Amino acid sequence: MRSILAVAVVLVALVAPATSGDLTPVAFLRIPLEGLVAAAVLLVLRGRARRIAAVVLGIALGVLTVLRLFDLGFSAVLDRPFDPLNDAGLLKGGVDFVRSSSGGAAAVGATVGAVVLGLLAIAVVTAAVLRTARVVAGHPTPSTRVVAVLTVAWTVLAVLGTQAAGLPVASRDAATLAATHVGQIGAGITDHREFEAAAADDAYRATPGANLLTALRGKDVVVVYVESYGRSALADPALDAMLDDAGLPARSAFLTSPTFGGGSWLAHSTLESGVWIDNQARFDDLDATGRATLAGLFRRAGWATAAVQPGTTEGFPDADFYGYDQVLDAHDLGYKGPNFSFATMPDQYTLKTFQDRLRRPGHVPLMAELTLVSSHAPWTPLPTLLPWDQVGDGSVYASMSGPSLPPQAILTTDPAVVRADYLASIRYSLTALISYLQTYGDPNLVTVVLGDHQPAPAATGNDPNRDVPVTVVARDPAVLDAIDGWGWEPGLRPSAQAPVWRMDAFRDRFLQAYGPRVLQ
């Protein structure tokens, strides 16, 4: 029985899919080419050489199994495979997410559990390969016949292209997976060079402040990121009706985000820098490029600049690079109420505090970035909207706080429930923002509203693209007239036919629309 179990473990390690959508029982009923080659090698070798080969193969397959587990997790949340070279920062972000949602003990437990699980997977797979090697060595004649028959079957099935549940029965997934992850190293080196060249090509690096943003002089410009506000949210009739009825002068379209399901900072830095930042290595390298950011260019042109980051709990070390005069993080916003899962405070509180602290009467023109986090996974519980004069220090929200769902809820809960919670959170965030603009908006306020990325696949349903809505809201008609050439659609809700830009295109087009064209 133990020998049968060992062979089963090896088979699972060789043919298990690396994407969550392919993870079905039928996916394991396949013939792995790598297993046939390994069995042939073990049949040829003898004694000590066979044992050494079995240990090496076992450890290699165990490491590959761990990478496959990472791939499964990344495909379920970010809709892409794990990149060992560039995704270390995302792993830390995942730990921070667990800490924010479920507490420090849960974050420590998740980290320790992941390490133990990884080591256990390597140990179990290695032991299974050793056991299988002993079976092969103890029964050389039948083992040779089985390998020969399965090799012929694999060849025929490969030629015919036979599939089971959309996967080839003649599998070589393990070799492909290994080649993919090894290839990521070379691709990362090439990508680093390409990124350096793209970041250096900056027409606004030395543009004088007097030549920047002249059409927005005297106005407050606020960039508002709505967490996880993706194109898929616009399939919600209730949200569409709310956006259509808002009555705010606006132009809308779509931007293609560099990330999906998480990694918000990649989207923020892409919009700010005007260069495509779709992995952690590019993000880490951005500071050293000296690239001019949108906030830095506003500051150069004479605006006071600020970042309001309620989701940031450990400081914002890149504030100087981005060009912010001040940063208000979760500790600076004075909130006295409860957390709402990941959200350290409700979006309405963030907006009210921003108004009271930074847009007081007589303030100098301000450029600010706000991040609204009530729509961050796991999307429940949610507060309710209050009259603006009742928000206070946030203690009023104590009666609205319910038990927070654990982060894994978005993977284990009924997808219909997950999507309903997601849409409810987007409606709350946008309702709060629309109410703010209706209450505190004036001709000297220009607001750019956009999503940072689509939510996790559990909430997008069958809409895996990376597009997010983007809207410019302004009561001064001249502000919207300046972007007529963009072809964006009137209102807060872009239609399916609205223009789609890459997110890195926004910075330069915005600067060109509201100031003299830079001299090349």
Word description of this protein:
- The chain is α/β, with parallel strands linked by helices and 520 residues long.
- It has two domains: 2-189, no CATH class; 210-513, Alkaline Phosphatase, subunit A (3-Layer(aba) Sandwich), CATH 3.40.720.10.
- It is 49% helix and 11% strand.
- The protein contains 18 helices and 13 strands.
- It has helices spanning 2-15, 33-44, 47-77, 88-102, 104-138, 140-160, 173-200, 237-244, 264-273, 280-289, 294-300, 319-322, 347-358, 409-412, 415-440, 457-460, 477-481, 506-513, and strands at 31-32, 163-164, 167-168, 170-171, 220-226, 250-256, 304-309, 326-329, 366-372, 445-451, 467-474, 489-490, 500-502.
- Strands 5, 6, 7, 8, 9, 10, 11, 12 and 13 form a nine-stranded mixed beta sheet that branches. It has a two-stranded parallel sheet with strand order 1-4. Strands 2-3 form a two-stranded antiparallel ribbon.
